[in-house]
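Anyone opening a protein record will find just a pair of labelled lines. The record below illustrates this layout.
***
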Amino acid sequence: MFGSERYGYLPDMITTAKGITSAYAPMGAVITGDHIADRFLHGKAIFNHGFTFGGHPVACAVALANIDVIEREGLCEHVLENEGRLRGMLESLRDLPIVGDVRGAGYFQAIELVKDQQTKETVHTRGGRGAVAGLPLRRALPAGADLPDR
């Protein structure tokens, strides 16, 4: 479920949010190693995080049910089985002159949009640099930018 498992390292902390409930309910979590958690599980130490709704039983129940579905239906295995097909399709976008790079793992993939593939000059958008996730390319590019008709 986590990159640390795939790449064989043990982080001190992992944060998770929408994925733990598939966004069916608002929930986030911090997973820590014992050397961190033990300080808060024993004695009088507390972790002041300021959220009055933290650990809400409904969100926790949704998270546990969602994790059960993820495991029962083998969703992580499905991602690993299909990541090559997704990556292959994304790699084919390198033929577009505005694609500077494709990188990632599993279903977490990135497409770098550039003005020029050779120089890797970035595409400037309103309010920032680079591509705007979730927007069609024509909307993400500034007015007047060249975009191939593909």
